Amino acid sequence: MNNAVPIPKHHLIGHRGAAGLRPENTLCSFSYAAELGLNWIEFDVHLTKDNHWIVIHDDTLDRTTNGHGPVTEHTADELIELDAGLWFNPPYPEQTLPTLMDTLHLAAELNLFCNVEIKGADSNPQLNAQQFATFVRKNNDVVDNQILVSSFNLEVLVELRKLLPDLPLAYIKDEFTEDMITLAQQHNFASINCLAKRFTTTYMQAAQRANIPVFLYTVNDMTTANYWIDKGVTGLFTDRPDLLLPA
Ligand code: G3P
Ligand code: MG
Prior knowledge:
Elements: E1 12-15, H1 27-35, E2 40-47, E3 53-55, H2 76-79, H3 100-109, E4 113-118, H4 125-138, H5 140-143, E5 147-151, H6 154-163, E6 169-173, H7 179-187, E7 191-195, H8 201-209, E8 214-217, H9 222-231, E9 235-238, H10 241-244
Parallel strand pairs: 1-2, 1-9, 2-4, 4-5, 5-6, 6-7, 7-8, 8-9
Antiparallel strand pairs: 2-3
Bound molecules: SN-glycerol-3-phosphate and magnesium ion (MG).
């Protein structure tokens, strides 16, 4: 594994798959992103009660599944039984919460590079880092050069860097701050990922001076996408690849 990440085709990364078009973070959302022509997807993972990785954005089950309560209070076996597509408009039948492993297998089949975002780590960053490192070590054949791991939680990234010196890591923060650059250099992060709405060209120039790739979320209109591509962004997370892909 090396710390460099490929540049996404058209600079576009399918946010939670194709979250504006399919139920987010489901296999059908990931497949649709690939069908539309993307070569990168982003998805969010939580550690389950029994230390498995499950793909879901929220800390609780209520918004996107027919389950209730915190994700971390359920085992993987319980979680994979839940419906994850009927909440969407229109509803998508037969969608469940994918495991990280299911998702990486599908991504390998579809030639998708993955940004795996670790969520829910705030209560125990050490455990999350250890469990993620264990997953990577055990499944190196599946993970192999296929993932960029990101988090809003700096501690989980710093711990992961110690455990897996070559794993590409990205630090996420809604609002850019200068210390993101220092931290990226110090911990050899592959990129910094920020909220597009609060990002500025001054921030972009600071990142470029330090040679740190920038990814911005979430961009669903062509004008904003073209603006940041012109400024040298490496990747843009989008819920609506259909609106941004060249005709
Ligand atoms: O990693 C980019 C973006 O996914 C971060 O925000 O809340 O959509 O996971 P969120
Ligand atoms: Mg995310």
